[in-house]
Design goal:
Order of helices and strands of chain B: EEEHEEHEHHHEHEHEEHH
Distance between the termini of chain A: 40 Å
Number of helices of chain A: 9
Order of helices and strands of chain A: HHHHHHHHH
Shape of chain B: globular
Strand content of chain A: under 5%
Helix content of chain B: 25-40%
Largest interface: A-B, 15 and 23 residues
Largest sheet of chain B: 6 strands, mixed
Number of strands of chain A: 0
Number of strands of chain B: 10
Oligomer: heterodimer
Shape of chain A: elongated
Radius of gyration of chain B: 19 Å
Chain lengths: 266, 257
């Protein structure tokens, strides 16, 4: 609020902020478009992509495991008394499964992934930029964008759908724990109810949008780090701003994707 | 080997500040002959590193041209530039070793991507260059485990492993003790003799300049203020040049020290 007031009083600063914002959006767009140009061009760094996928998976696994389980548990615990009041307890497994698979699983996993990975990529590439390692690559006739950026974006895009499926599964298991704690419902009955309510068209859009989210996390982190300047201060800025920007873009993209999904499968 | 003609490079003022562009290099011209150690001498911030970065097109010059082996590098495509870069080595001020890789991987990096060596040929090359810089035991270490002097040596090994015709050294001895400075400087001279390399060495270190230089230029406020041998530089009457060699500070006409 203070910044807004200050900017209103100072039109030059406000116009500068606005210019910076549009410059960032334009820069990020150009940066991301370059990915599609370079990704199909040899040499292919499959080894690097696999290495990054392993690292990203291991890095985020503990956090998403805990989060996934808790999401399902909490949704079931929160909804159970309400559904009981309306006599709709039998719909609880379906409700947990649908909300997790269609929305909560992909979005929450992507936000956690953004916090953990986007900042990491921003900081890593940022420090490579300020210590001239990216320049060293360029001078040795290696395309640093292809080696550092394309591999990371590709790894993020491919690993996030896998992590999301894993979180979906854990959340459904978490939902069962809540049900089992209050009723003596059998696992078989719970799972049957889950599969009865889930359709393939619920799973596809949920997983498909994580491809976009993964791309956003990778490209925003890489963009911020690749263009970092002003020494270690710049590295810190690249790291934090990449999380903020990636999270906002994920939520924005999600809104658009939900609208498209509802339009295709009403 | 390298001809620089009327090179000018300016930078805009920092964001949020108004004013004219800051001219770092102002109409610079010089020639570097084959197999020559050419030293660019001057105070910090006089555009020495900018000059090197313009030669390899890490920075685009505003005006002027740069010929490397007769080819103007200023107006060629990145693909053509990369072909020239394969024959140029660049030792960065902070060594710029890749943190996430071991010494072996650092040295293999350009070989894997730009040449068709087999794994055993690469291994032999890595061991040979590490022996040349006296660091055979550091082959499996990460850059974080090396001292400043060792990093410079590994950086040098990575630079010469591709057998370049021209090496650009950006402050090769900055931050090193006098003994390591002499060792690195002598290594540069030995490499030049052994491998017939042409070198452009940017430095403000007198010890390094004295050991390495065949010819030198001195930059002052973006212009060349001296061109010739280091010995001639030591005898110069110009108060600015005297300041490099005298213990006491000598005031120049412009008041600049």
């Amino acid at each position: 609020m203070k910044i807004l007031t200050k900017n209103k009083e100072n039109p030059v600063a406000f116009s500068q902020s606005l210019t910076n914002f549009f410059e960032t959006i334009a820069g990020l767009t150009t940066f991301s478009v370059r990915f599609f140009k370079d990704v199909f061009r040899p040499p292919y760094e499959f080894g690097e992509v696999k290495k990054h996928m392993d690292e990203l998976g291991i890095k985020t696994m503990p956090l998403v495991t805990l989060t996934g389980f808790i999401i399902g548990l909490v949704i079931a615990m929160q909804s159970q008394p309400v559904m009981k009041r309306f006599g709709a307890e039998s719909f609880l497994p379906g409700m947990v499964a649908l909300s997790v698979v269609r929305e909560l699983g992909p979005v929450i996993t992507a936000l956690i992934f953004a916090g953990r990975v986007s900042s990491g990529i921003g900081a890593e590439l940022g420090s490579m930029r300020v210590t001239e390692q990216i320049d060293a690559m360029e001078v040795s006739a290696v395309n640093p964008y292809k080696y550092l950026v394309v591999t990371r974006i590709l790894a993020c895009t491919l690993i996030l759908p896998i992590l999301t499926l894993y979180v979906d599964f854990l959340a459904i298991m978490g939902g069962y724990l809540a049900v089992a704690l209050s009723d003596a419902s059998s696992f078989q009955v719970y799972i049957n109810a889950v599969f009865k309510s889930l359709e393939f068209t619920d799973l596809i859009p949920g997983v498909a949008k994580t491809l976009f989210f993964g791309f956003i996390v990778g490209s925003v982190g890489a963009y911020k780090g690749y263009n970092a300047e002003n020494g270690t201060v710049g590295v810190g800025k690249a790291s934090t701003s990449s999380v903020v920007m990636a999270s906002l873009l994920i939520l924005l993209t999600d809104t658009i994707m939900v609208k498209i999904t509802v339009w295709i499968w009403p | 080997m390298v001809e620089v003609k009327n090179l000018t490079k300016s930078f805009p003022p920092p964001p949020g500040q108004n004013g004219e562009d800051y001219k770092v290099l102002d109409n610079i011209s010089f020639n570097v002959e084959e197999r020559e150690n050419f030293v660019v001498f001057g105070r910090s911030g006089t555009g020495k590193s900018v000059l090197l970065k313009c030669i390899v097109r890490l920075l685009e010059p505003d005006i002027g041209y740069i010929l490397v082996n007769g080819k103007n590098v200023v107006h060629i495509s990145i693909k053509e530039m990369n072909e020239i870069r394969k024959r140029i080595g660049f030792l960065f001020q902070g060594s710029a070793l890749y943190d996430s890789m071991t010494v072996r991987e650092n040295l293999e990096f350009p070989l894997i991507r730009n040449f068709d060596f087999t794994a055993s040929e690469r291994e032999k090359k890595v061991k040979d260059v590490l022996e040349k810089v006296g660091l055979s035991k550091a082959i499996d270490k990460k850059p974080a485990e090396l001292s400043g002097g060792m990093k410079k040596r590994v950086g040098l090994a990575r630079t010469i492993i591709t057998e370049p015709e021209l090496i650009l050294y950006d402050e090769p001895t900055t931050g090193l003790d006098p003994i390591t400075t002499k060792e690195i400087s002598q290594l540069i001279v030995e490499l030049q003799k052994d491998l017939n390399i042409t070198a452009i060495v940017v430095t403000h270190d007198l010890i390094c300049a004295r050991i390495v230089a065949d010819t030198s230029i001195v930059l002052r406020a973006g212009k060349i203020c001296y061109e010739g041998e280091i010995k001639g530089l030591e005898k110069a009457d110009d108060p600015f040049l005297k300041n490099f060699f005298s213990i006491e500070l000598v005031n120049t006409d412009s008041g600049e020290i």
